[in-house]
Amino acid sequence: MLTKRIIPCLDIKNGRTVKGVNFVDLRDAGDPVELAKIYSDAGADELVFLDISATEERRKTLVDLVRKVASTINIPFTVGGGISSVEDVEILLQNGADKVSINSSAVKNPQLINDLAQKFGSQCVVVAIDAKQIDGQWIVHLVGGKVPTDWNLFDWATEVEQRGAGEILFTSMDNDGTKNGFANEALAKLSKLVNIPIIASGGAGNIQHFVDAFNDGKADAALAASVFHFKEIEIKTLKEELKNNNIEVRI
To answer: Catalytic residue positions?
Structure first.
């Protein structure tokens, strides 16, 4: 049985870790390299770094960050934000990233998923999907959740799997930052629909929410930010509780 993964997420803006609610109202959460080391030592299974700022210097800043993180931690990490070409990915992987996460660029150019999977292998390609419910439908959004698309969550998830994505990072925008729990119904439907791992994101507020994401949502991994950044949940305690609930984790 595959172990379930716990993944702290670090949203990066201008070289700092930030956290918001429903994708807005950002506040500073610390130095990303220091946080990466803390999480690695604390037993996190993987890390995700998402560059959410749009400065022209971003690519250079991100590569520097990737290099520093790679030399500091010994767990896999994924990098996303503004990646739109095979060349972008090549540079990040060469500098130590294990996987990349693509979102808006995948919707605008779905062929990018095929190209990346072909060149680097599916295991490197995470497609992030931000979706929220509109009139009872889960609608995929782009540009940090600002722009709705014509895709619904489940059709797009099926499409990205067929094109070679190795993993889906699903963020419920309705749940993001609310600490009311993950979107377990949508997660369970996704897990049934596709055969690649699903990372649950958006809504973690307490340990029970993680238990529910794995039991009810059938997620393969659970990602969270503020509850870890602001020390509301310790990873060691979380994993012990998951173990107590018969959820297989790496301790």
So the answer is: 11, 130
